[in-house]
Specification:
Radius of gyration of chain A: 13 Å
Distance between the termini of chain B: 41 Å
Low-confidence stretches of chain A: none
Number of strands of chain B: 12
Oligomer: heterodimer
Mean pLDDT of chain A: 94
Largest sheet of chain B: 6 strands, mixed
Helix content of chain B: under 10%
Number of helices of chain A: 0
Strand content of chain A: over 45%
Helix content of chain A: under 10%
Order of helices and strands of chain A: EEEEEEEEEEE
Structural class of chain B: mainly beta
Shape of chain A: globular
Number of strands of chain A: 11
Structural class of chain A: mainly beta
Strand content of chain B: over 45%
Low-confidence stretches of chain B: none
Mean pLDDT of chain B: 93
Order of helices and strands of chain B: EEEEEEEEEEEE
């Protein structure tokens, strides 16, 4: 069974540009989560989808971040416009049930110059 | 506020030595507890989890963790460390139900000397 996949693995962009990250959860997992680790800090929650609905977006830092999960399958996280402080590793995770183990993807390493 | 604390930022052990990584949590109720590992260039891999029941939990790669309610701790242990265990280890927790977002500790980086 394929795990959680994320694309791209790395992205280097300039301040002010737009970047879109993609996450494909494990097949059949209704719950999808985005997390972020900024350099030197702990991994922090961004948001949680149940199917195509946003269950909890309390961790989204500001309105430059837009997450979607059309059709309840893969999800995208768009940063527009990107700022220097957005640099970090963005992780996606999925789980079958809402109180079940979350399985993580390899992460996308974003560097904003 | 809910929090997870890993007091040790960096630990160095010799190959073959035993290992204990500390994790403390602060929650109103007992959370679900997890240990994840991130090897260089890799994503987060689940080592083990505690939901309920037996307080000594076995995981992959020879790791185990013990839940101690009285100490609000969930320490990770391994009897004999291998060089391939060098990685960053994260303790994490959530309450469950609608509050299923994970709260992570800051991570402990393990270095293994030969």
């Amino acid at each position: 069974e394929a795990g959680v996949t994320q694309f791209p693995s790395h992205s280097v962009i300039e301040k002010g540009q737009t970047v879109t990250l993609r996450c494909d959860p494990i097949s059949g997992h209704d719950n999808l989560y985005w997390y972020r680790r900024v350099m030197g800090k702990e991994i922090k929650f961004l948001l949680h989808f149940v199917k195509e609905s946003k269950q909890d977006e309390s961790g989204m830092p500001n309105n430059r971040f837009l997450a979607e999960r059309t059709g309840g399958t893969y999800s995208t996280l768009k940063v527009q416009p990107a700022e220097l402080e957005d640099s970090g590793v963005y992780f996606c995770a999925s789980s079958q049930g809402v109180s079940e183990t979350q399985y993580f993807g390899p992460g996308t390493r974003l560097l904003v110059l | 506020a809910q929090s997870v604390t890993q007091p040790d930022i960096h630990i160095t052990v010799s190959e073959g030595a035993s290992l204990e990584l500390r994790c403390n949590y602060s929650y109103g109720a007992t959370p679900y507890l997890f240990w994840y590992v991130q090897s260089p260039g890799q994503g987060l891999q689940l080592l083990l989890k505690y939901f309920s029941g037996d307080t000594l939990v076995q995981g992959i790669k020879g790791f185990e963790a013990e839940f101690k309610r009285s100490q609000s701790s969930f320490n990770l242990r391994k009897p004999s460390v291998h060089w391939s265990d060098a990685a960053e280890y994260f303790c994490a927790a959530f309450i469950g139900g609608t509050a299923s977002k994970l709260t992570f500790g800051t991570g402990t980086r393990l270095q293994v000397t030969l």
